[in-house]
Structures are given as structure tokens and as C-alpha cells.
Amino acid sequence: MLGDLSSFEEISEALKAERACWETYLDYFDIIEGPGPNGAAANCFTRHTQVIYGMRGEVLVLTGRDEYAAFLEGCDTFYQMLADVARHPRFTWSNGILRLTKVISWQWLAANAQHGKQRPADFVAVGHTEDEFACVDSRLISSRIVGPAAGATAIGALP
What we know:
Shape: globular
Strand content: 35-45%
Oligomer: single chain
Largest sheet: 8 strands, mixed
Number of strands: 8
Number of helices: 3
Distance between the termini: 45 Å
């Protein structure tokens, strides 16, 4: 069972799985922060994924890759002015299921950047992400929970 670290072979398989999951996680942010449409980032998730997103206002529960893709596509303008910095990643295993936890995401929302106002950010949020992975063709995110890890630090107006 993955996550069993009792032999070299098990450790090797666990490290391979963790690396594949980390690559999926990084692929997601490459798409979100890239120039293309955000909906493609949903391909890093399983078809039956569940995403609980509580960073901006009301907590949203999105069920299925298609619903999450539609949410991401609706955020294209929002994400054009956002940069995430993932910090403090930690993999944990429980009953053969891999989780990436305690990831701190700093979201810089530069709402006035298009007006030439050069400031660090208009709004900064610190979030905690917990991803659970499933092996489907490759390692894909089967569930994600995103919520605030600290209060918002406002430098300007809320987005």
C-alpha cells in the first residue's frame, strides 16, 4: 500500500507518487498564472472532484471537474491580477491516500495594476490548501479545500 515506508521499494514508490502529485500541483498554478484560459487547470482534477473554496466571501462547494472548470473560467479576469506563492508543502499519508497539506498561498490582488499604479498589492490574503490525490491515469487532485489561514491584509480596496 502506498505510504507504507517499511521497505526500500515502498519508500521509492511513495516518493514517486509524491513527486507526481507535486508536479500536478505545480501544473495547476502554471495554468492559473499563465496567459491562457483558467478552465484548463481543472484537468489537474479527477472527473468527480470536490472543491471547497472559501477565500473570497461565501464558501463555495464545487462538485465535478466540469463545474470547477466553469468556476475557473468565470474567474479569468480576477486571476489575471493574482499571483500565488505556495509555501510550506507537506505530504502526509493515511490509508494509502496522499494529501498535500499546510500549503500557504499568498494571493496578491493587484486591482489597479492596469492603471499604472505600481504598488505591491491592493489586497493580500493568506490561505491554507489541503489537496487529496487519486491515481487516475496519473496523479490527479480528487478533492481540494481552500480557506483563509489568517486575516486579510488590506493595502488598498477589497477586490
